Amino acid sequence: MSTGETDSTETTGRTARTGPAAPPATTGPAAPPATTGARIVVSPAGWCVAATAAVGLVTGVLFGWTELFVAGVICALVALVSGLFLLGGTPVQIGLEPPPSEVTVGAEAVALITVSNPSRLRVRPGVLEVDIDGSRVPLVVGALEGHATVRSPQRVPTGRRGVVTLGPVTAITGDPLGLVRREAARSGTIDVVVRPVTVALGSVAPGLLRDLEGLPSSVLTDSDLSFHALRPYTRGDDLRHIHWRSSAKSGTFLVRQFEETRRSHVLVLLATAPHDHADDEEFELAVSTAASLGVRALAEETRVSVFAPRATAGGRERLGRLRGHARSALLDDLGRVTRAEGAPGLERVAGEIAREAADASVVFVCAGSTASAAQLRAVSAMLPSGAEVVAVVARPASPGRAARMGRLRILNLGRLAELPRMLVRAVGL
To answer: So which domain of life are we looking at (predicted)?
Structure first.
């Protein structure tokens, strides 16, 4: 397809950046084209033809070698005709449209490449090349009548979790012999986030998140909602809390004592340091576990804080707090999480995270098999006091086991599908 350099670009893409929240499955404008002009690319065969033309013409004239001179003239004519194919062209508009729905590992995802001919002239068939994560995929486009538009599907690779960069789309104009061609980037780029696989959970909290108003804790208070016991009256107690019937029976004033309640707040801590997981398979299982827990908590309208430590300089940025206000934002952020060299281990950030989410009622620690029970206990000791702590240890292909060490519950998870059953088992520990 012959194209000019003044083509306009209309490209949209699915983006998910850590920062202010965006509505689920948002679509916004893509980045501007990587290159604004065209470049001429000469193939090895083209260089051979050009060299033969030069040598043949010069040598034939200098030495009177007729055969070589004829060969030089022929090669020069071939090079000239090939160059004529690069001239002219009718502008077209090329756009990228992201997959219409969320993209999950292993699911089919198709982006659309839109090619429009805004002029009245017919555009001859041509070739486009779509850049997919640095690899170019050819796409043949048929002839376009005036003011016509075609949409060509382009499959997005979803074999692994992460970010797939699509674009730019490059228009290729060249000669039939493949000696020379003109490449012009005609679109911007879009990032398609391949989200982790999740499993449906009956409830993150049967027994862990017990009521809508809040969670009873071990801290006793004189005024709250969860009744604990009666105690003798002391000077300064609120007279409204005197239990008059029991006081009349005992002959002394007795006041109600309550258990302090907390609003339900689920904290998910995902280990991202390379030494916290034996391999990538364990890490992917841990990411899917964190995603499943976070999504279920959001479905229950529970406050969620998800942390995935990063290899950056101190402060909140190092803690890697993900967006936990909406399902789509959380899954997009988890789709971008990686095992980064230099990322702090669980023991180095647990204390900081505890201060960031001091009111957490349930804490899930998602780690790999290299995290020992002693390390998990040390992490548990740094987390908010009074919170239930559940460590989910990813051990692919191993039988699921559960154990309890003080307030810490340790679940060895072999497959993601076992997570609902293992959470139920954790409640009974």
So the answer is: Bacteria
Same domain, yes or no: 131 and 223: no
Sequence-distant (≥ 6) Cβ neighbours of residue 177 within 8 angstroms:
45, 78, 82
Q: What length is written for the chain?
A: 429
Tens digit of each residue's pLDDT (9 = 90 or more) over 191-211: 999 999 999 987 654 445 443
In 3-state terms the chain splits into helix, strand, coil percentages (rounded to 5) of: 30, 30, 40
Span 235-273, pLDDT tens digits: 877 787 788 888 888 888 888 776 555 457 899 999 999
321 and 300 together in one domain: yes
Count of domains forming the chain: 3
- Which residue from 310, 103, 90, 125 is spatially nearest to 190, judged by alpha carbons? 103
Domain that residue 246 falls in: 215-262
Tokens of 183: 């490449």
188 and 304 housed in the same domain: no
